[in-house]
Design a protein that fits this description.
heterodimer; A: alpha/beta; Rossmann fold; four-stranded antiparallel beta sheet; 14 strands; 58% helix; elongated; B: mainly alpha; ABC transporter involved in vitamin B12 uptake, BtuC; two-stranded antiparallel ribbon; 11 helices
Chain lengths: 624, 289
């Protein structure tokens, strides 16, 4: 409720400020306040989630036309009509999202462009209900029998804009906001951290639609009339320009954009005809010259004038919100798990049974069979193109299994009649890392690890925004656990700084911390030591050993690795793959003695020692 | 009745040409150009200016195509140099910005007034098609140029070494670069060819609807729907999608009135995405996420 109080307070302050202005400025400010509201919603979608919608004007129109029609056609009072209409916009957004959000990103842009033209068709040619193309006059708004003057409409619009700004900011800094950012940076990593991508996208889109709808209801009463032309593609482009110029992904940006771009033309009325041209140019120039927008410039300026100020502010804010860890509090998260470790100790933690994976005509994995015993560190070796990573990707659901099945703790998770969705694997106790670490550059190291706990936390859209006690408690617990995980993997950089500037080794540590923070039963590491110094690689494997000893539930680790000597000295069991097939599974000594492995793999390795080094140097030169 | 179908196919060919341009750019560069409609408009205006000054018809075509090439180079520079380090989303927003600038530049300079232009090669002549019906000769020029240029482009992709290089880049930019294909040049080619297709559609469309600032922007969405019908992958699919959309549109105009046509295209897009997201001709499964 602290967030609610803060929002109430902030809204009241800006509304009081607005009440002090003269009638004309009051109107201008109220209009800008509503535009800020729309921009907030759109910016969450574009800047935080990475989806492009061109329908923000249409959703605003749905809200504006909707509330007038509800008031005209029914006897529902205003105070109920607005929530009903906002809920309706949410539903329209949800339905529209389900058609395209399973597909790649730009389809949403197409569908929303279509929705915009369809909306225009309906309000222009939909008949008398929509004003026969001329628009509708808004009835005088009344609350509990008192009719509101235009002055009050201005004040209320400003109040709600201020109120919602705080709420949206709180939402962006919640479990959902974190998930949205993770998904934008990397959908695959997000899914394996337990995030349901389609649902996250749909909720972000519906949310931005509902916010625009809410702004639309205010707009109807502020303008006292609505016309179809007010909600066309030009209006959408305006919203887009506000978000980009203000700063994509930044709440401050959503406020700055409309404020600067709409207050400015007030002083340049004579140049009105050049407005759109100027907006278009501003859009391109900002994208090219200052992609983080005005908010980015403000942040940079603050960092230059008072270094460390923004971080101190951040720390203070999270203490006030009650999400900063407290001294003496024991972190506890109730594990949300599906499936359990099998009771019979002889059941393998993981088993591949005749798994085949094809990419078009190419068979990458061919009747692969091996079992991983519980509590072991199991190595998977093989020359380049042997299908090692494909085998792991098949388990994670990133490629589909053509035949055979993959069984975890006695439960078929791939290839059976019922496959487990990728994002559910986290709840099944599976965690993985990637060949090149996939982290979210905008988030701090700590937040990146907390993102790994997504499936263990419970807060949603409303609870994440209002942050009631259970949310504050779980956020505190998540932060403590994340800090412990970082400590355990030996991460010693500043965990509050954005990870963009970290070195490769630190990114590896970070990714492993994100994987182990969920206390997985099965940890999949895809070439965890590549790009690391030998010492760092050894240290990492030894950390894994000590981690295994500490956890109460047996941790099984499957490592795909190029560095064969390192694996031989740290694994209990090794499987050797050649041409998509498991040649042998056994102790390192047995695998080493296998003739087929010797000729096909270790022989190559000898050549690779000489040739590979040169190729490696070339690659580094290329990368630089 | 015949006239309606012929007219539908002709407007469909325009949608198809737009879709071909969009797909051409999208396949290799993975960028959707939201300024494609304005490029068409520029083509229309260039054609109008050329006819006003009474040049030869070969020169008119050359001028329009040359403008397309210049604009294509411009887009290549913007999307691959100025916004070269930005993500897909930023580039798409950038093309929206370009479309706003182009549209307003035309509006400010030439006003919203429409200009009537004669058909390319055919002037204002008409062709009788039996039953007392006549259609403008330009209709057949649209159909002919649309279908022939699409087939020619397709053949070029399939049969020539350079066409193969473009397809290789569309498949995987990294692999193409490793096999020694000049990726940058292929991307430049895609933008240039895509924009030339747009200005060419402008030349073909102008006699049918007059030249005005939003002539391209108004039908951009139709081009996208045509491309989606064809699965956003295949050139032939884009043209067939366009022709189909044109036919559906004229018949729905008869049934529900012309003002409903945008709504109909939107419903078609939703239906395609829900039932057959890979398009009518798409073979490959769409990339998940």
């Amino acid at each position: 409720m602290r967030v609610f109080a803060a929002a109430l307070g902030f809204g009241t302050i800006v509304a009081l400020g607005d009440a002090e202005l003269g009638a004309y400025h009051q109107f201008v400010i109220a209009r800008i306040a509503l535009l800020i509201l729309v921009t907030l919603g759109l910016n969450v979608l574009i800047g935080v989630t990475g989806l492009l919608s061109l329908a923000s004007a249409a959703f605003m129109g749905v809200g504006a036309f909707g509330v007038i029609i509800v008031l005209q056609k029914t006897s529902i009072p205003l105070i109920l009509a607005v929530p009903i209409v906002v809920l309706g916009t949410w539903c329209v957004g949800w339905a529209l999202g389900t058609t395209s959000l399973r597909l790649s990103g730009f389809y949403l842009a197409l569908v929303t462009l279509g929705f915009l033209v369809a909306f225009q068709t309906v309000v222009q040619h939909g008949g008398a209900t929509f004003g026969s193309g001329y628009g509708l006059l808004a009835p005088i708004p009344t609350i509990f029998g008192h009719s509101l003057s235009i002055e009050w409409v201005c004040i209320l619009s400003t109040f709600f804009a201020g109120f919602c700004t705080v709420l949206v900011w709180s939402l962006v800094n919640s479990r959902l906001g974190r998930a949205w950012r993770t998904m934008k940076a990397n959908p695959v990593a997000a899914e394996l951290a337990g995030m349901n991508i389609t649902r996250l996208k749909t909720s972000a889109f519906a949310f931005s639609a509902a916010i625009a709808g809410f702004a639309g209801t205010g707009y109807a009463f502020l303008q006292q009339a609505v016309s179809p032309q007010a909600f066309d593609i030009n209006e959408t482009i305006d919203h887009l320009v506000y978000a980009v110029v203000g700063g994509l992904g930044s709440t401050l940006g959503s406020v700055l954009g409309p404020l600067v771009l709409e207050e400015l033309p007030e002083y340049m009325r004579s140049l009105q005809q050049y407005r759109q041209l100027f907006f278009g140019l501003a859009l391109i120039l900002i994208l090219v010259l200052a992609p983080r927008g005005l908010a980015g410039l403000v942040h940079d300026a603050i960092d230059r004038v008072a270094p460390g100020l923004s971080r101190r502010t951040q720390a203070t804010v999270s203490r006030l919100l009650g999400t900063a860890p407290r001294a003496g509090e024991q972190p506890a998260l109730k594990a949300r798990r599906r499936g359990a470790a099998a009771t019979d100790p002889e059941t393998p933690a993981l088993e591949y049974r005749d798994v085949t994976v094809r990419y078009g005509g190419l068979t990458a994995v061919r009747e692969l069979s091996f079992a991983v015993r519980r509590g072991q560190i199991h190595g998977l070796i093989g020359p380049n193109g042997a299908g090692k990573t494909t085998a792991i990707n098949a388990l994670c659901g990133l490629v589909s299994v053509a035949s055979g099945e993959i069984v975890q703790d006695g439960e078929v998770i791939r290839g059976g009649r019922r496959s487990v969705a990728s994002w559910r694997l986290a709840q099944h106790g599976v965690a993985r890392t990637f060949q090149t670490p996939l982290v979210v550059p905008e988030l701090s190291a700590l937040e990146n690890v907390v993102a790994g706990l997504h499936s263990q936390l419970r807060s949603g859209l409303i609870t994440g925004t209002l942050k009631p006690r259970f949310v504050r408690r779980e956020e505190r617990a998540a932060r403590s656990l994340a800090a412990q995980a970082l400590e355990r993997v030996g991460f010693d950089s500043d965990s509050a700084a954005p990870v963009g500037s970290l070195g490769f080794g630190e990114l590896r540590q970070l990714e492993i911390a994100r994987a182990i923070v969920t206390r997985p039963r099965l940890l999949l590491l895809d070439e965890p030591t590549s790009g690391l110094e030998l010492e760092a690689a050894v240290a990492m494997l030894e950390q894994l050993r000590s981690l295994q000893a500490e956890l109460e539930e047996a941790l099984t680790v499957l490592i795909v690795e190029h560095n064969v000597p390192l694996l031989f000295s740290h694994c209990e069991t090794v499987t050797a793959m050649i041409d998509g097939h498991a040649v042998i599974t056994g102790t390192p000594d047995e695998v080493r003695a296998e003739p087929e492995v010797r000729s096909s793999y270790l022989g190559d390795q000898l050549i690779a020692e000489g040739v590979g080094r040169k190729a490696g140097e070339e690659m580094h030169a290329y990368a630089e | 009745m015949v006239a309606i179908n012929v007219g539908g196919l002709a407007i469909g060919a325009i949608y198809g040409l737009m879709a071909v341009g969009v797909v051409l750019v999208f396949r290799t560069t993975a960028r959707v150009n939201f300024a494609h409609g304005e490029v068409l408009t520029f083509g229309g205006y260039a054609y109008w200016l050329a006819t006003k000054n009474g040049t030869s018809q070969a020169l008119e075509l050359a001028l329009v195509l040359a403008l397309g090439i210049v604009i294509g180079v411009g887009f290549f520079v913007i999307t691959h140099y100025l916004l070269g380090r930005s993500d897909e989303l930023t580039v798409v927003i950038g093309t929206l910005g370009v479309s706003v600038v182009m549209l307003n530049a035309v509006q400010l300079h030439y006003t919203d007034l429409g200009h009537r232009v004669p058909g390319w090669l055919t002037g204002y002549s008409t062709v009788p098609i039996g039953g007392g019906e006549v259609v403008p000769s330009n209709t057949f020029v649209i159909l002919g140029v649309g279908i022939v240029s699409t087939l020619a482009l397709h053949a070029w992709f399939q049969l020539t070494r350079r066409g193969q290089a473009v397809r290789a880049v569309a498949e995987s930019r990294e692999d193409a670069a490793l096999s020694g294909i000049p990726v940058r040049r292929v991307l430049l080619f895609s933008w240039v060819a895509g924009c030339a297709f747009a200005t060419l559609s402008g030349l073909l469309l102008a006699p049918a609807v007059d030249v005005y600032p939003s002539m391209g922007g108004d039908i951009l969405f139709k081009g996208f729907v045509a491309a989606a019908l064809g699965g956003f992958e295949s050139i032939i699919g884009a043209m067939v999608g366009g022709l189909l959309l044109g036919l559906i549109e004229v018949h729905s105009n008869q049934l529900f009135g012309a003002e409903m046509k945008d709504l109909i295209s939107f419903l078609i897009l939703l239906a395609v995405l829900l039932v057959r997201p890979q398009g009518l001709f798409g073979r490959t499964q769409l990339r998940r996420v």
